[in-house]
Amino acid sequence: MYNKNIFKIYITLITLVVSITTTDAALANSTGLNSSFPQTFPPPDLPPPIVPAWSALVDKSKYPKVPPNPGGYQCAPGPDTYYWGLTYDDGPSENTPGVLDALAQRNQKATFFVIGSRVFQNPDILARIVKEGHQIGVHTWSHTPLTTQTDEQIIAEMKWTELAIQKAVNLTPLYMRPPTGDIDDRVRGIVQQLGYKVALWNHDTFDWKSFSDPKYDLNWIPGNFTLWATNKTATTGVISLEHDLYNTSASKAPAAMDIVKANGFTALQIANCVPNAPAYVENVVLPNPASTSSPSGTSGSSGTSGPGSLAKPSATETRYVINVLAIFSSISSKTGLLFLNLVALVFVQSPGLGERPLKQANR
Ligand SMILES: [Zn+2]
Fold this sequence. Notes:
About 45% of the residues lie in helices and about 10% in strands. It is of the alpha/beta class and about 375 residues long. Pfam families: Polysacc_deac_1. One of its GO terms (cellular component) is membrane. One of its GO terms (molecular function) is chitin deacetylase activity.
């Protein structure tokens, strides 16, 4: 009797899992990303709703005493090598393609820290960022300073953005940047438990002021780059902060790229500042401009090749399915956690649905 009931539960859950994934895939296929995102994702520029199953991923007893993650803050491995981590925040936007064009013309790579709510507004632009070998990092859903939010709100900001990126490009970033650089031990502890490295910057153009402050001189952007690039006494490399959200700041991005190149720096993705550091959960190898043997087939805006090989696409699908299930369980039942635990059993024991235990697959 007991075994029979367990079997029935398994069958029900498997049916549910298949129906959810099938429905969602069908929705994405039939409507396209642009139209399907607003139906299933929160509104932009507002803190997204809390999902209890996601909140349960973080053990509060493990913070606030969390040290900064190693790496990610500096971008120069040695005195003879000049690496420059170009970073662009707050997109993807209508101004991002111009930045991508300029990067492609110079064979430079960069990291884009994206806003989750803008991912569903511009999924095609996000896909182009990936296709051209740049790195994507999480910059939250609503850009609300994280230290002003509750634990659950912080987790929701991260996971909604993660889910949007997964849906758009089938990738799960390993790097995040807190809006305005606002972070403390509590926030650091939460995002690290969610699997993220924190990537700040050490050179700020303050270009974000250009959109609202009429006194901001756009020439300050290349002016700052020149100062930084010609400072030969610097003991660390550069991670510069610019924004691809505004047309004002984005218009000066090409000039800044030229200065980086003219002064002998290699512009690359933050993940490549630390040799061979992964950028995503999935097994994707980013092209590395600092390596003479790096793959070159990913530059340019045409073609169908990706940033590298996706060795385990099924792992991507598994994480995406688990995120969808987490939302479903929180909505459908107050005992959502129990539901998720039962689903975990299905994942562990059903070779057709997942290859890894839930604890590894979920992040
Ligand atoms: Zn920002």
